[in-house]
Predict the structure.
Amino acid sequence: MATEPPLAILQSRVLRILLAISLLVLQTVALAQVHAVSLKEATAHDLQLAFGQNKLTSRQLTKFYLNRIRRLNPLLRGVIEVNPDALCQADRADREREAKPYGSLSALHGIPILLKDNIATKDKMNTTAGSFALLGSVVPRDAGVVARLRRAGAVLLGKASMSEWAHYRFSGNNSGWCARSGQGKNPYNLSATTCGSSSGSAISVAANMGAVSLGTETDGSILCPSSFNSLVGIKPTLGLTSRGGVVPITPRQDTVGPMCRTVADAVNVLDVIVGFDPYDAKATREASKYIPREGYKQFLKADGLKGKRLGIVKAFFDFYSGTRVTKAFESHFNTLRKQGAVLVDRLELANINEIYSYSSERVAISAEFKLALNTYLQDLVVSPVRSLADVIAFNNKHKHVEKIDEYGQDSFIAAQATNGIGKTVKSAWRNMTRLSQDGFEKLMRQNKLDALVTPENIVSTVLAIGGFPGINVPAGYDEDGVPFGICFGGLRGSEPTLIEIAYGFEQATKIRRPPTFLR
């Protein structure tokens, strides 16, 4: 057997050492480049600029977020699972960027995004609405919004945790809990509520475990967690974004929207996900007339408040009387005026007590949920459960993991007892239409308002029953460090105006700050 001469062996070892040192230097330079770009709180625009200047790659960015998830998620529980193919998608985005001229790609190209766990992905990830009942189920296709994100080149980073079954299984105040990931924690104050049901989407982006995220809302599920986690959340007009492939509550109110750290990021996401989907044809076709030809980015105007008429319903602020929220809003009203807005104060919303009795909404949702969920489950390629009755039985069988004794499933049982769409449900539909027409719509039109201004998500039910849009923007922090937001709500299709208002307020105040994890 031939042997290498001693000199050759030495040269070979030296070359290996030099090669190892070179690789270490290259890795150090790459790491230094990543940290030269501040990734915490970085916007999509910041990241795209770094991509274009070769200071950052999608792979480096994705690894940054995966490391944040690995480090923070055991405490915060905002992510239910990560995508095993996330780095492969990031590599593909890097290759595409090299092959195409700068500026020719989507604003979300190569940007990692987290999806609420009720939004279907046809890949290695689960779609379970936070429940073990759907673990291992196989969806027939990507949700409509996911298909659009893939076409835009976004990196699907993982699934965000959520209040199980979009907080519809049980009626108690258990926001942020689901069987698969446990109790989500508010990164600003670990003992405070996360709100829900898009709790993980909010927690994760607030704590910089993802660049941007998607949530869903039936009544407050985007606006409320955005408020409590110092995020911008857009609840779009019904049908502006597809619900195809989303585990449903009710097609009459469900919507999908962005949850991000800035208005600009939320708008970039909105621009990608809006549009017609054959799997949600009726709603998306009707709403497509509202989509502006050049998209929503054109409405990011620093002077967007100028000339806007903003309504203030007294009852919504009386609820917070004497709190830090009230004091903050007094300052915000002055800011709105200084930026050129006209405030129409002390308004009364007709039938407000009836709206917030929730009686018609509860009746309608209970019947609609059973029908919609059964349809969704029957469409799955593989599933341990095929009906709401199966889900109830699964939960009873697995009482310990689903915490049936503690949280129950009262809403499920009530829904299962319904029998289709009868006279009572149709009466509830007519009543909600009347409440919207005689209340919010009449108030907006009679006072020629561009938007209604409210604290936190208190207006969410008004917006929900009529399919109206709303945008939450960070507005402050209470004495315990818990964030609260300001919400701008408008008539159907008023997203361009609401974006101008929200962006104008954000740029005039710049209130958001990252969590400090002190509590």
